[in-house]
Amino acid sequence: MQVSLVSIFSNLPVNGLRIISSCLKQAGHDVNLIFLPQKHTERYDENVLNDLIKIVAGSDLVGITTMSNHFDNAVQLTEKVKQETAIPVVWGGVHPTIRPEESLGYADMVCVGEGEEATVEVVNKMEAGEDYTDTKGFWFKKDGEIIKNPVRPLIRDLDSLPFQDYDYEGHYVIHNNSIRPMDEELLNYHLRGDFMAAPTRGCPLACTFCVNNTLQKMYEEKKQFRGRSVDNIIEELVTIKAKLPFINHITFDDDAFFSLSVEQIQEFSQKFKSQVGFPLDIGGATPYSISREKLGSLGHIPINRIPKRAEM
Protein backbone atom coordinates (compact mmCIF):
# COMPACT_ATOMS: atom_id res chain seq x y z
CA MET A 1 0.00 0.00 0.00
CA GLN A 2 1.08 3.55 -0.71
CA VAL A 3 0.15 6.01 2.04
CA SER A 4 0.73 9.76 1.93
CA LEU A 5 0.81 11.47 5.34
CA VAL A 6 0.48 15.25 5.45
CA SER A 7 1.38 17.57 8.32
CA ILE A 8 0.09 21.13 8.38
CA PHE A 9 1.69 21.96 11.71
CA SER A 10 3.78 25.12 11.87
CA ASN A 11 7.00 23.14 12.41
CA LEU A 12 8.52 19.89 11.19
CA PRO A 13 9.05 17.62 14.23
CA VAL A 14 5.43 16.24 14.36
CA ASN A 15 6.45 13.30 16.55
CA GLY A 16 3.23 11.32 16.28
CA LEU A 17 3.02 11.39 12.49
CA ARG A 18 6.67 10.44 12.13
CA ILE A 19 6.16 7.43 14.42
CA ILE A 20 3.07 6.36 12.45
CA SER A 21 5.15 6.57 9.28
CA SER A 22 7.77 4.31 10.85
CA CYS A 23 5.04 1.86 11.95
CA LEU A 24 3.61 1.70 8.42
CA LYS A 25 7.05 1.14 6.91
CA GLN A 26 7.72 -1.56 9.50
CA ALA A 27 4.50 -3.25 8.34
CA GLY A 28 5.74 -3.22 4.73
CA HIS A 29 3.94 -0.19 3.33
CA ASP A 30 5.34 2.71 1.31
CA VAL A 31 4.97 6.15 2.85
CA ASN A 32 5.24 9.73 1.66
CA LEU A 33 5.67 12.30 4.42
CA ILE A 34 4.66 15.79 3.33
CA PHE A 35 5.27 18.80 5.57
CA LEU A 36 3.29 21.96 4.83
CA PRO A 37 4.01 24.44 7.65
CA GLN A 38 1.84 27.48 7.15
CA LYS A 39 0.63 30.46 9.15
CA HIS A 40 -2.77 29.49 10.51
CA THR A 41 -4.68 32.32 8.84
CA GLU A 42 -3.23 31.77 5.38
CA ARG A 43 -4.65 29.47 2.75
CA TYR A 44 -2.35 27.48 0.51
CA ASP A 45 -1.69 28.86 -2.95
CA GLU A 46 -3.03 26.89 -5.91
CA ASN A 47 0.45 25.91 -7.07
CA VAL A 48 1.12 24.30 -3.67
CA LEU A 49 -2.15 22.37 -3.91
CA ASN A 50 -1.22 21.21 -7.40
CA ASP A 51 2.20 20.07 -6.16
CA LEU A 52 0.47 18.10 -3.43
CA ILE A 53 -1.81 16.34 -5.90
CA LYS A 54 1.18 15.30 -8.01
CA ILE A 55 2.87 13.77 -4.98
CA VAL A 56 -0.15 11.89 -3.61
CA ALA A 57 -1.25 10.61 -7.03
CA GLY A 58 -1.17 6.83 -6.91
CA SER A 59 -1.58 6.71 -3.13
CA ASP A 60 -4.18 4.40 -1.64
CA LEU A 61 -4.78 6.62 1.37
CA VAL A 62 -4.05 10.24 2.32
CA GLY A 63 -3.73 11.09 6.01
CA ILE A 64 -3.82 14.63 7.41
CA THR A 65 -2.89 15.46 10.99
CA THR A 66 -4.47 18.60 12.40
CA MET A 67 -5.08 20.60 15.52
CA SER A 68 -7.95 23.04 15.87
CA ASN A 69 -5.89 26.03 14.78
CA HIS A 70 -5.09 24.25 11.49
CA PHE A 71 -8.69 23.22 10.81
CA ASP A 72 -9.28 25.49 7.80
CA ASN A 73 -6.06 24.34 6.16
CA ALA A 74 -7.07 20.70 6.67
CA VAL A 75 -10.42 21.40 5.02
CA GLN A 76 -8.71 23.12 2.07
CA LEU A 77 -6.33 20.21 1.46
CA THR A 78 -9.06 17.61 1.85
CA GLU A 79 -11.36 19.37 -0.60
CA LYS A 80 -8.53 19.57 -3.15
CA VAL A 81 -7.69 15.88 -2.82
CA LYS A 82 -11.36 14.94 -3.23
CA GLN A 83 -11.81 17.30 -6.15
CA GLU A 84 -8.82 15.90 -8.06
CA THR A 85 -8.70 12.23 -6.97
CA ALA A 86 -10.76 9.36 -5.62
CA ILE A 87 -8.29 8.69 -2.78
CA PRO A 88 -9.89 8.28 0.66
CA VAL A 89 -8.79 10.81 3.27
CA VAL A 90 -8.26 10.16 6.98
CA TRP A 91 -7.82 12.85 9.61
CA GLY A 92 -5.92 12.33 12.85
CA GLY A 93 -4.61 14.42 15.71
CA VAL A 94 -6.09 16.38 18.57
CA HIS A 95 -8.96 18.09 16.74
CA PRO A 96 -10.37 14.96 15.03
CA THR A 97 -10.03 13.10 18.33
CA ILE A 98 -12.18 15.56 20.26
CA ARG A 99 -14.46 16.56 17.34
CA PRO A 100 -14.78 13.38 15.24
CA GLU A 101 -18.28 14.02 13.90
CA GLU A 102 -17.37 17.50 12.73
CA SER A 103 -14.22 16.11 11.09
CA LEU A 104 -16.23 13.47 9.24
CA GLY A 105 -18.01 16.32 7.52
CA TYR A 106 -14.87 16.49 5.39
CA ALA A 107 -12.78 13.33 5.86
CA ASP A 108 -13.85 9.77 5.02
CA MET A 109 -12.47 8.40 8.28
CA VAL A 110 -11.06 9.75 11.53
CA CYS A 111 -8.49 8.33 13.90
CA VAL A 112 -9.65 8.87 17.49
CA GLY A 113 -6.86 8.66 20.06
CA GLU A 114 -3.46 7.06 19.58
CA GLY A 115 -2.98 6.16 15.95
CA GLU A 116 0.01 3.86 15.58
CA GLU A 117 -1.67 0.48 15.92
CA ALA A 118 -5.04 1.58 14.55
CA THR A 119 -3.60 3.09 11.36
CA VAL A 120 -1.52 0.01 10.60
CA GLU A 121 -4.60 -2.18 11.11
CA VAL A 122 -6.69 -0.08 8.72
CA VAL A 123 -4.00 -0.04 6.03
CA ASN A 124 -3.33 -3.77 6.38
CA LYS A 125 -7.04 -4.51 5.97
CA MET A 126 -7.33 -2.16 2.99
CA GLU A 127 -4.43 -3.91 1.29
CA ALA A 128 -5.97 -7.33 1.96
CA GLY A 129 -9.36 -6.22 0.62
CA GLU A 130 -10.98 -6.80 4.01
CA ASP A 131 -13.63 -4.75 5.78
CA TYR A 132 -11.77 -2.19 7.89
CA THR A 133 -14.76 -0.27 9.23
CA ASP A 134 -14.73 -2.23 12.50
CA THR A 135 -11.24 -1.02 13.46
CA LYS A 136 -11.08 0.19 17.04
CA GLY A 137 -9.78 3.73 17.29
CA PHE A 138 -11.40 4.81 14.00
CA TRP A 139 -14.71 6.37 13.03
CA PHE A 140 -15.97 6.07 9.46
CA LYS A 141 -18.49 7.73 7.21
CA LYS A 142 -20.29 5.11 5.11
CA ASP A 143 -23.49 5.44 3.08
CA GLY A 144 -24.44 8.59 4.92
CA GLU A 145 -24.04 6.94 8.33
CA ILE A 146 -21.28 7.33 10.91
CA ILE A 147 -19.67 4.17 12.27
CA LYS A 148 -18.39 4.91 15.77
CA ASN A 149 -15.90 2.30 16.92
CA PRO A 150 -14.60 2.38 20.51
CA VAL A 151 -11.11 3.61 21.27
CA ARG A 152 -8.46 0.93 21.47
CA PRO A 153 -6.42 0.42 24.66
CA LEU A 154 -3.57 2.81 25.22
CA ILE A 155 -0.14 1.59 24.17
CA ARG A 156 1.51 0.65 27.45
CA ASP A 157 4.91 -0.42 26.16
CA LEU A 158 6.13 2.74 24.44
CA ASP A 159 9.50 1.05 23.86
CA SER A 160 7.73 -1.26 21.40
CA LEU A 161 7.18 1.64 19.00
CA PRO A 162 9.80 2.43 16.35
CA PHE A 163 11.63 5.72 16.44
CA GLN A 164 10.44 8.71 14.44
CA ASP A 165 10.92 8.57 10.66
CA TYR A 166 13.69 10.98 9.73
CA ASP A 167 14.56 9.48 6.36
CA TYR A 168 14.88 11.77 3.37
CA GLU A 169 13.45 9.47 0.72
CA GLY A 170 9.74 10.07 0.22
CA HIS A 171 9.79 13.19 2.39
CA TYR A 172 8.70 16.58 1.07
CA VAL A 173 8.43 20.10 2.46
CA ILE A 174 6.91 23.39 1.37
CA HIS A 175 9.65 25.92 0.67
CA ASN A 176 9.41 29.20 -1.20
CA ASN A 177 5.77 28.42 -1.97
CA SER A 178 6.36 25.08 -3.67
CA ILE A 179 6.68 21.51 -2.37
CA ARG A 180 10.21 20.17 -2.73
CA PRO A 181 11.88 16.83 -1.93
CA MET A 182 13.45 16.92 1.51
CA ASP A 183 17.22 17.03 1.80
CA GLU A 184 19.68 17.75 4.59
CA GLU A 185 19.86 21.47 3.84
CA LEU A 186 16.08 21.90 3.94
CA LEU A 187 15.66 19.80 7.06
CA ASN A 188 18.37 21.75 8.84
CA TYR A 189 16.77 25.03 7.73
CA HIS A 190 13.41 24.07 9.24
CA LEU A 191 14.64 22.29 12.39
CA ARG A 192 17.28 24.94 13.13
CA GLY A 193 19.46 22.43 14.93
CA ASP A 194 16.74 21.20 17.30
CA PHE A 195 15.50 17.62 17.62
CA MET A 196 12.18 17.10 19.39
CA ALA A 197 11.29 13.91 21.22
CA ALA A 198 8.63 12.73 23.68
CA PRO A 199 9.91 10.62 26.59
CA THR A 200 6.39 10.21 28.02
CA ARG A 201 2.74 10.23 27.02
CA GLY A 202 -0.32 11.40 28.88
CA CYS A 203 -0.54 13.35 32.10
CA PRO A 204 -1.43 12.35 35.66
CA LEU A 205 -3.63 15.44 35.91
CA ALA A 206 -6.99 16.32 34.34
CA CYS A 207 -6.95 20.13 34.28
CA THR A 208 -10.23 21.43 32.90
CA PHE A 209 -8.60 23.73 30.32
CA CYS A 210 -6.40 20.98 28.85
CA VAL A 211 -7.03 18.37 26.16
CA ASN A 212 -5.81 15.70 28.59
CA ASN A 213 -9.06 16.24 30.51
CA THR A 214 -11.05 15.14 27.46
CA LEU A 215 -8.67 12.28 26.68
CA GLN A 216 -8.94 10.90 30.20
CA LYS A 217 -12.71 10.78 29.86
CA MET A 218 -12.40 8.86 26.59
CA TYR A 219 -10.48 5.97 28.09
CA GLU A 220 -11.57 3.60 30.83
CA GLU A 221 -7.95 3.13 31.88
CA LYS A 222 -7.23 5.25 34.91
CA LYS A 223 -3.44 5.38 34.60
CA GLN A 224 -2.84 7.22 31.35
CA PHE A 225 0.62 8.56 32.08
CA ARG A 226 3.26 6.33 30.54
CA GLY A 227 7.01 6.67 30.16
CA ARG A 228 9.60 5.16 27.88
CA SER A 229 12.60 3.42 29.43
CA VAL A 230 15.69 5.58 29.85
CA ASP A 231 17.69 3.33 27.52
CA ASN A 232 15.04 3.71 24.81
CA ILE A 233 15.04 7.52 25.12
CA ILE A 234 18.83 7.69 24.97
CA GLU A 235 19.02 5.25 22.05
CA GLU A 236 16.75 7.47 19.96
CA LEU A 237 18.83 10.57 20.75
CA VAL A 238 22.12 8.81 20.02
CA THR A 239 20.70 7.46 16.76
CA ILE A 240 19.50 10.88 15.61
CA LYS A 241 22.79 12.49 16.68
CA ALA A 242 24.61 10.18 14.27
CA LYS A 243 22.01 10.46 11.50
CA LEU A 244 21.56 14.24 11.56
CA PRO A 245 24.98 15.81 12.24
CA PHE A 246 23.54 19.34 12.31
CA ILE A 247 21.50 18.66 15.45
CA ASN A 248 22.92 20.52 18.46
CA HIS A 249 19.91 20.85 20.78
CA ILE A 250 17.18 18.58 22.19
CA THR A 251 13.61 19.51 23.14
CA PHE A 252 11.29 17.23 25.09
CA ASP A 253 7.78 17.92 23.85
CA ASP A 254 5.76 15.94 26.36
CA ASP A 255 3.45 17.17 29.11
CA ALA A 256 4.89 15.70 32.28
CA PHE A 257 8.54 14.63 32.08
CA PHE A 258 8.98 15.24 35.81
CA SER A 259 6.31 12.66 36.59
CA LEU A 260 9.00 10.07 35.96
CA SER A 261 10.54 8.73 39.16
CA VAL A 262 13.59 10.21 40.84
CA GLU A 263 15.54 7.08 39.93
CA GLN A 264 14.57 7.34 36.24
CA ILE A 265 15.52 11.02 36.07
CA GLN A 266 18.85 10.34 37.78
CA GLU A 267 19.61 7.53 35.32
CA PHE A 268 18.57 9.73 32.41
CA SER A 269 20.79 12.59 33.57
CA GLN A 270 23.88 10.40 33.76
CA LYS A 271 23.35 8.77 30.36
CA PHE A 272 22.29 11.98 28.62
CA LYS A 273 25.43 13.76 29.80
CA SER A 274 27.79 10.97 28.71
CA GLN A 275 26.12 9.94 25.42
CA VAL A 276 24.29 13.03 24.11
CA GLY A 277 25.59 16.13 25.82
CA PHE A 278 23.50 18.76 24.02
CA PRO A 279 21.58 21.60 25.66
CA LEU A 280 18.08 20.48 26.61
CA ASP A 281 14.64 22.09 26.79
CA ILE A 282 12.07 20.25 28.90
CA GLY A 283 8.81 21.32 27.32
CA GLY A 284 6.46 21.11 30.26
CA ALA A 285 6.36 20.33 33.95
CA THR A 286 3.57 20.41 36.50
CA PRO A 287 4.56 22.08 39.79
CA TYR A 288 3.49 19.13 41.92
CA SER A 289 5.85 16.78 40.05
CA ILE A 290 9.01 18.87 40.48
CA SER A 291 11.19 18.24 43.49
CA ARG A 292 14.56 19.52 44.64
CA GLU A 293 15.94 16.01 44.25
CA LYS A 294 14.75 15.69 40.63
CA LEU A 295 16.05 19.12 39.67
CA GLY A 296 19.33 18.45 41.44
CA SER A 297 19.88 15.25 39.50
CA LEU A 298 19.74 17.26 36.26
CA GLY A 299 22.33 19.74 37.45
CA HIS A 300 25.07 18.44 35.15
CA ILE A 301 22.97 18.98 31.99
CA PRO A 302 22.84 22.38 30.25
CA ILE A 303 19.08 23.00 30.52
CA ASN A 304 17.72 26.09 28.79
CA ARG A 305 14.22 26.16 30.23
CA ILE A 306 11.56 24.22 32.12
CA PRO A 307 8.21 25.98 31.63
CA LYS A 308 5.69 25.23 34.34
CA ARG A 309 2.16 24.15 33.49
CA ALA A 310 -0.73 25.60 35.44
CA GLU A 311 -2.90 23.23 37.46
CA MET A 312 -6.64 23.47 37.99
Describe this structure in words.
- The chain is built from 11 helices and 15 strands.
- It is an alpha/beta fold and 312 residues long.
- It starts with a strand and ends in a 7-residue tail after the last strand.
- The mean pLDDT is 94.
- It is globular.
- Helix content is 35%, strand content 19%.
Mean pLDDT across residues: 94
Q: In CATH's first tier, which class of the largest domain applies?
A: Alpha Beta
- Percent range for β-strand residues: 15-25%
Major sheet size, sense and barrel closure:
9 strands, mixed
Portion of residues in helices?
A: 25-40%
Count of helical segments? 11
Question: Can you summarize this structure?
Answer:
With 312 residues, this protein is of the alpha/beta class. It has eleven helices and 15 strands.
Helix-strand blueprint:
Elements (H helix, E strand, L loop, with lengths): L1 E6 L7 H12 L3 E6 L10 H11 L4 E5 L5 H14 L4 E4 L1 H5 L1 H4 L5 E3 L4 H13 L9 E5 L2 E4 L22 E5 L2 E4 L2 H8 L2 E4 L2 E2 L9 H8 L7 E2 L2 H14 L5 E4 L9 H14 L4 E3 L9 H6 L5 E3 L7
Parallel strand pairs: 1-2, 1-3, 2-8, 3-4, 4-5, 10-13, 13-14, 14-15
Antiparallel strand pairs: 5-6, 6-7, 8-9, 11-12
Keywords:
312 residues; Rossmann fold; Transcription Regulator spoIIAA; nine-stranded mixed β-sheet; 35% helix
